């Protein structure tokens, strides 16, 4: 649907002419596609057009518009639409309130945010976990840690299921301020309550690195690993992977150094995580350099390391360079696997080089380096020309 709005609308018109009336879910998907492709004004015109043709969108469609207005920074227009919902036959739900609340908090309009919540209470509209998390996140970003803690306490006392996502914004702010003691207290509380720490938690801890407190970040992570009874090597590997996935590749490098000083030996998977992270963040030259550094220290890159780099280069539209890496890989005696070839076929398909992708896929199939199931999946996924010969 997304990226092909005109085509979708043409299909919709044909269905309506044949007497097939789309349901409200279809309308919501189309409106969301419209605002993502062309902006919320076009999405609002589309909604008007749908109504004019006899369509009956539901509250979800209006929530999509509210989201679009807020994402475009048009909070006043969002407030106006929110207030008009009863006239349109809809009572704002908790999702509607949460969308507007997030925007008000982001802009620091706290009095209006609290009034909105008070209105929810008057209307018998109970806040959700998302409502509390929006407040906690916004208060933490604004540096209002004491208030964030109060909201967290209120959330707990009200019987809501508190998770790491509620704590993470507070931990992130405390780390930005270098308040290590409070960070440790929060983490201890989370572990004592048996909360599952996630990537957002480790990403928050990594913010200590911005203040030059890399050793403190490492010591906190080491303590967490021991308190949770993880095999420390597996724990370190998992943390590095999660940091790289969350866009904190440089802090991951800094913390990894401390880990290696304390006896951790990175494996192929860890290096692949770092390479993927660097490519994801546009650090292609650095990703290339890591191979030289690894080899200088006696590490022989694994096929998964090469695949991570080739994938990153292809996603950055550097297929020419990825082919050079492929040739270097083979010259050094590291044989490609099915994933390597899969990456190249998908890269060509993403570049809309369908004929080249089909030709390559045919050749790889005939050479027996791709399984039948992989070949069939790629042909179906990208609508490539069927196998010949």
From TrEMBL:
Keywords: Repeat. InterPro entries: PPR_rpt, TPR-like_helical_dom_sf. The keyword Disulfide bond does not apply. Pfam families: PPR_1, PPR_2. PPR repeats lie at residues 23-57, 58-92, 93-127, 128-162, 163-197, 267-301, 302-336. Belongs to the PPR family. P subfamily. NCBIfam families: PPR. This is Tetratricopeptide-like helical domain-containing protein. It comes from Medicago truncatula. The lineage of its organism: Eukaryota, Viridiplantae, Streptophyta, Embryophyta, Tracheophyta.
């Amino acid at each position: 649907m997304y990226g092909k709005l005109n085509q979708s609308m043409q299909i919709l018109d044909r269905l309506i002419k044949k007497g097939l009336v789309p349901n409200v879910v279809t309308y919501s998907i189309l409106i969301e596609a419209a605002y993502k492709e062309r902006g919320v004004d076009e999405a609002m015109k589309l909604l008007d057009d749908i109504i004019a043709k006899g369509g009956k969108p539901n509250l979800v469609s209006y929530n999509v518009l509210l989201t679009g207005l807020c994402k475009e920074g048009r909070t006043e227009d969002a407030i106006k639409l929110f207030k008009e919902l009863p006239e349109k036959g809809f009572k704002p739900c908790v999702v509607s309130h949460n969308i507007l609340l997030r925007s008000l908090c982001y802009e620091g309009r706290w009095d209006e945010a609290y009034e909105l919540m008070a209105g929810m209470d008057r209307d018998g509209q109970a806040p959700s976990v998302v409502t509390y998390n929006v407040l906690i996140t916004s208060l933490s970003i604004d540096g209002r840690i004491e208030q964030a803690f109060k909201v967290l306490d209120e959330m707990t006392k009200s019987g809501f299921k508190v998770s790491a996502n509620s704590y993470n914004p507070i931990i992130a702010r405390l780390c930005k301020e270098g308040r290590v003691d409070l960070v440790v207290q929060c983490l201890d509380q989370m572990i004592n309550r048996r909360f599952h720490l996630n990537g957002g938690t480790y990403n928050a801890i990594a913010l200590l690195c911005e203040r030059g407190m890399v050793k403190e970040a490492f010591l906190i992570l080491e303590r967490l690993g021991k308190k949770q009874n993880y095999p420390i090597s597996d724990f370190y590997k998992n943390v590095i992977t999660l940091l790289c996935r969350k866009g904190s590749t440089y802090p991951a490098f800094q913390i990894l150094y401390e880990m290696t000083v304390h006896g951790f030996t990175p494996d192929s998977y860890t290096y692949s995580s770092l390479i993927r992270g660097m490519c994801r963040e546009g650090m292609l030259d650095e990703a290339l350099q890591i191979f030289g550094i690894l080899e200088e220290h006696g590490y022989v890159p694994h096929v998964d390391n090469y695949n991570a780099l080739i994938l990153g280069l292809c996603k950055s539209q550097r297929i020419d360079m990825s082919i050079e890496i492929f040739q270097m890989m083979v010259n050094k005696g590291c044989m490609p696997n099915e994933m390597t070839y899969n990456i190249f076929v998908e890269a060509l398909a993403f570049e809309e080089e369908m004929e080249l992708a089909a030709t390559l896929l045919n050749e790889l199939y005939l050479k027996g380096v791709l399984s039948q199931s992989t070949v069939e999946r790629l042909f179906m996924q990208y609508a490539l020309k069927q196998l010949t010969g």
